[in-house]
Amino acid sequence: MDISIIPHPQGVTEVTVSGRLNMVTAARVREAIQAAVGDNRPRVAVNLAKVVFLDSSGLGALIAGMKTAREAGGDVRLVAPTEQVELVLELTNMSGVLRSFDSVESAYRDA
After folding, report:
1. CA–CA dist 75, 69 (Å, integer)
2. What pLDDT shows up at residue 111?
3. With 80 as the cut, is the pLDDT of residue 110 above it?
4. What CA–CA distance (Å, rounded) separates 4 from 23?
5. Confidence of residue 100 (pLDDT cuts 50, 70, 90)
């Protein structure tokens, strides 16, 4: 799994994840989100366009990141989730909590 962190204007940080977001890699994603929030950038867009698999540990990392960001006055928003990721979000009823957008720009356009 690869993770990249890209700062955007208006305090938005894009965390791009590729590969499998599972028990083995979830901690790295959680740490990347926490690092962005710790840098006073609590508005995080997690780009999942290249994630081929998401399990409950990966979902837990996203939820933990969302809680951390919200406690700091921000949020975590998902960008371009793959079909497999969307299926997991729907099956767990998390699609309303972890909102998805087509792009980083649209995720925080009105925020």
Report:
1. 5
2. 54
3. no
4. 19
5. very high
Q: Does residue 96 carry a pLDDT above 80?
A: yes
CA 5 to chain centre: 11
Name the CATH topology of 2-106.
Transcription Regulator spoIIAA (3.30.750)
Sequence-ordered strand ranges (E) for 10-80: 12-21, 43-54, 75-79
Does residue 57 contact residue 92 with C-beta atoms inside 8 Å? no
Whole-angstrom distance, CA of residue 80 vs CA of residue 47: 6
The reply to whether the predicted model has a pTM over 0.85 is yes
- N residues, the chain: 111
Structure token pair of residue 33:
């989100």
Residue 16, strand partner residues: 4, 47
DSSP 3-state of 6 = strand
